[in-house]
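INFO  loader      accepted 1 record
INFO  loader      residues=422
INFO  predictor   begin
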Amino acid sequence: MKPMLELLLFGLATILRRSSKNPLVQAKLRDRKCAVQVRTRDNSVGRSFVFCGGAVFSQRGVLANPDVSLVWKDAAAATCVLRSSDLDALQKALADEWLSIIGNGEVATWFGDLVRSARNRTPAVTGAKPSVAVIGLGRMGSGIARSLLRAGFPVTVYNRTEEKTRPLVEAGATAAATPAAAARGANFVITSLMGDASVFAVVEGTDGILAGLGRDAVHIGASTISADATRRLVGLHVGHGSEYLAAPVLGRPDAASAGELVGLVCGKQSVFEASRGIIQSYTRQIQYLGEDHAVALAMKLAVNYSAAIVIDLMGQVYAFGEKSGIPLTVLHTMFRMLWAQPVLQGYATRIWRRDFDDLGFDLRGGLKDLTLMVDAAKEMGVRWDFAELVQRKMARGVEMGLGQKDWSSVYEVTRAEAGLGT
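INFO  predictor   done
INFO  writer      dumping tokens
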């Protein structure tokens, strides 16, 4: 299998170099400077990919210090998955630990999306490009509009406060006086607004989107809104004869301007495929999550919840470090190393499978350490409330007979308290 894997990786390098003139690939290569390594666990097969100045360089062998390494269990596993070009197969390989990501996970995600774009020989949008209206020009909406303009789409913009439209008009967009005027004649309308109320304020009414939207046009909702609001929007579009995609995004405003957001999309698959070229213009990765529109919003909230907890967790640790004398530069380095560790990926897999018999650290030991953590934080006058919460859950887990299971089995307590049963 080794010669076959080497051939596949050489072919991938060729595809990447040849496709670098594709506008979609060019957009992803722009301003990227990084090194990616693909190798087997025993280093018997390896190839490096270096990206700099919009160019792609590649060579056989193992690179000393790549930004990220994609490490396959063996050549047979890598060959099986890479030959399929199937995203589901790749995700299964990660879940089954056939594939590990060591280093910068964001670069790994970017590389995967680059490969998918390069292998898609059909341009995302052919012929005359469809017209797009962007409604809501806050930091995210204006960034999305700029990415669309850079990709060559005719863009009409609307914002409640007119001054926010001026920089985009100067960049080539057309300003509209109302949401209805923006939607009139547009093939796609993207809304990027604060929440439920602001979305319906521009969708309904005599000057709303639906008043101007064509029957076959697509409304792409990039806002983070509630599941109830999402279902109501779907119903409004069904009654109107238009289509709706729930498509909230992950990323910061600078990522929106650079076309580097992550899109979470739900809706009819045929509508998603028709809209893919639009969404690709402002994203580096798209996750299509099925036809139930509310799932996209649930995914967005799940990701944001994780980010919020980690942000506050880091703040709690920094506060503890300040009060106990730990150099904050050391904590900073620890955090940067910690999130790239395969051990965290392993815990994600254990929890997903509910496989807690492969002991790394048992729940009794975890409870002991959590008790020490809570006591140490109290002594420093710092509230480690997550530790207190996990301490309570671990204590209940021991009561449930999980004491000799891996400490990630605390998940069973979360499931029980959520009424999920056994």
